[in-house]
Amino acid sequence: MNFQELNLPNALLRALRDKEYERPTPIQMQAIPAALEGRDILGTAQTGTGKTAAFALPVLANLLRRPPVGRGRPIRALILTPTRELALQIDESLGDYAKYTPLRTCVVFGGVNQRPQFDCLKRGVDVLTATPGRLLDLIGQGHISLKQIEFFVLDEADRMLDMGFYDDIMKIGKKLPENRQTVMFSATMPPKIRQLAKNIMN
Ligand code: AMP
């Protein structure tokens, strides 16, 4: 199987050629078609398997296919990840894959001055990558609204729970629209992850 057969938009295929990806990895082959159909996905995948593209490509493709409804430029996709390093990596990958599209991305994480993140948000963003604490801070200050999120990705879910983010994830989940698409990736699938999946997925 190659990327063309996955029915991705040309703008994304062009970016993948620039990245010199020849064919989808197993997690990409499994996740991308289901995600393009709008289904919720629970995947077990470690770092290094290509899981970032497995959620990033269908999120970008679905955003391109469906123009935003209403006025302004609401945040339409939220990717939640446990650490600053992962958040930066994901945002960089999103930028690479989206480079031939009009979609804009932004990343927010704690431990640094929030001013540059705030400026990025003010310019308008389609896909936001965030760590839970800083996301909740910025929501509390009125800089971020999750009311128009269409795609929610929970990355490294087991690590999130290990780091004590369960309550934050549930708080964030309650702020998301009911009729969204949810994709959750975890390296391991213990009972507490299944429980979390039951709570936040269809
Ligand atoms: P990840 O598991 O998402 O952290 O990705 C691990 C590495 O694999 C990253 O450097 C990606 O750029 C790369 N990668 C992802 N998908 C592919 C692919 N289909 N072919 C070649 N490299 C890939």
Comma- or semicolon-separated keywords:
about 200 residues, alpha/beta, six-stranded parallel beta sheet, 6 strands, globular, binds adenosine monophosphate
Uncertain residue ranges: none
Q: How many beta-strand segments?
A: 6
Task: Give the helices and strands as they follow along the chain.
Answer: HHEHEHEHEHEHHEH
The ligands bound in this entry are: adenosine monophosphate
Taking Cα atoms only, what radius of gyration do you get, to the nearest Å? 16 Å
Shape: globular
Order of strands, widest sheet: 1-6-5-2-4-3
Q: What is the quaternary state of this protein? A: single chain
Could you give a short account of the major beta sheet? 6 strands, parallel
Report the average pLDDT across residues: 95
> What is the number of helical segments per DSSP (H or I, 4+ residues)?
9
Beta-strand proportion: 5-15%
Helix percent reads 40-55%
What structural category do the secondary elements indicate? Answer: alpha/beta
Distance between the termini: 28 Å
What do these coordinates show?
The protein is α/β, with parallel strands linked by helices and 202 residues long. Helix content is 45%, strand content 13%. The protein has nine helices and six strands; from the N terminus they run H-H-E-H-E-H-E-H-E-H-E-H-H-E-H. The protein has a six-stranded parallel beta sheet, with helices on both faces. Strand 3, helix 5 and strand 4 form a beta-alpha-beta unit. The site of adenosine monophosphate has 11 residues, from helix 3.
Summarize the model shown.
The protein has helices at 10-18, 26-36, 51-65, 84-97, 115-122, 132-140, 157-162, 166-174, 191-200, and strands spanning 41-44, 77-80, 105-108, 127-130, 151-154, 181-186. By secondary structure, it is an alpha/beta fold. The longest helix has 15 residues, at 51-65.
